[in-house]
Amino acid sequence: MESLARAEFAPTTTYLNSASSGLLPARATTALKEALDTAARGGDWVDAAFAAVEECRAAYARMVDVPARRVAVGGSVAVYVGLIAAALPPGAEVLVADNDFSSLVNPFVTRRDLTVRTVPLERLAEAVRPHTALVAVSAVQSADGRLADLDAIAAAARAHGARTLVDASQSAGWLPLRADAYDYTVAVGFKWLLAPRGGVAYLTVPEDLGGLHPLFAGWIAGEKPADSCYGPIAELAHSARRFDESPALLTYVAAQHSLALIEKLGPESIGAHDTALADRFRTGLAAQGHTPVPAPGSAIVAVPGLGHAAARLAERDVYVSERDGNLRAAFHLYNTAADVDRLLEELAALPGSA
C-alpha cells in the first residue's frame, strides 16, 4: 500500500483532514485535467464522462456488495435524505442519534409533520419503538469518530418493523459496509472515497426501490434517457437510476479513478492502515496527558477541548479540523507514522496544549 500511495499522492503538508475532504490521487487529477483540456478546445468528452458515471455506479456497488441496479448517483447526501423523508407518511417517527450530521437529520426536521426523536448514539438500538418508522444514523460520527453499532440497530429496527438509513460518508472507503443489511445507505464521494469536493454522492435502495418517489426525476431518470428529454418521461428507469440527479460529469471523471484505487487496495486493508495510525495517535495523546473521545476501531480521533489548536497547527502546515470543540484528526491511506509523530510534536509545542 505504501508504495502505491507514494506513487499517487505527494502532499507538501501534513494533511490529516480526510474527514473534511480527501486528497485527489494522481490518476484522478490527470483524468480531470485531460477532460478539462478537451472541453476547453471543444472536443468530445461528454460520452466518456457518462461512461465514467456508470463505472462509478458499478464500482461503488461492488464496494458495498449490492447490484449496480440498486445504486443511484447524484451530488448530495442531503438531497437523497430529503427524498427518503418525503416518502414517509405524516406523523411518522424518525429516530436519530444526538448531534449526528445535519445533512442526515435536518431533512426530516424540516418536514413539520414528522416526529424526530433523538437519543444518545449508544442507546439507539434500545430506543426503537413499535411505532418508529425509520432509524437514521451515521456509521461513523463526524464530530468525534464514534462507530455506531449497526448490527444491533438493524436488528432492533427489523424487530419493530422500522426501516434503516445509514450514512456512510465518514466510513465508505476504509470501513467495509454491506448495504444489503439496511434499507437505504448514502455516502458522499469527496471524503474517504477521494473524489473532488462536491458533486458525487451515492444512494442504495432495496430491490423494490424502498417506496421512494422520484420527485426530482429529469431526463437522466428515464429508462431510455436519450428519448426522455421533452415532455413527461414515458418510462422511468426500472432501477435505482430513476433517483439519479443529473451528474456533475467532470467530478465523476475523476471519481472513477479514485474508486478504482480504493477498490484495488481494498477497504479492509485501507481500514487496517488507517486505524493503526489512529491508534498510534491515541497512544501519543495519552503520553501527553490528553484523553480522546473513546472510539475504538475508528480512523477518526477527536480530542475534547483542543479544537482551538487546529488553526495554530495550520500555521505550521499541519491540517486537522475543529468539530464541536474537538480537535479532529482523520487518517487515510496517504498518511504515515511520520505524519502522526509530526502532529504530536507540533501539538506538544503549542502553548496551552499540555
Could you characterize what this model shows?
By secondary structure, this protein is α/β, with parallel strands linked by helices. The chain is built from 10 helices and 12 strands. It has helices at residues 2-8, 26-40, 46-64, 77-86, 102-109, 150-159, 249-265, 267-287, 309-315, 337-349, and strands at residues 14-15, 71-74, 93-97, 115-119, 132-138, 163-167, 184-188, 201-204, 300-304, 318-319, 321-323, 326-330. The strands form 3 sheets. It has a 7-stranded mixed beta sheet, with helices on both faces. Strand 3, helix 5 (102-109) and strand 4 (115-119) form a beta-alpha-beta unit. Helix 2 (26-40) packs antiparallel against helix 7 and helix 4 (77-86) packs parallel to helix 5 (102-109). The relative contact order is 0.17. The model has no long low-confidence stretch (mean pLDDT 97).
Question: Descriptors for this entry?
Answer:
354 residues, alpha/beta, 12 strands, globular
Fold topology:
Layout: H1 2-8, E1 14-15, H2 26-40, H3 46-64, E2 71-74, H4 77-86, E3 93-97, H5 102-109, E4 115-119, E5 132-138, H6 150-159, E6 163-167, E7 184-188, E8 201-204, H7 249-265, H8 267-287, E9 300-304, H9 309-315, E10 318-319, E11 321-323, E12 326-330, H10 337-349
Parallel strand pairs: 1-10, 3-4, 3-5, 5-6, 6-7
Antiparallel strand pairs: 2-8, 7-8, 9-12, 11-12
Helix pairs in contact: 2-7, 3-7, 4-5, 8-10
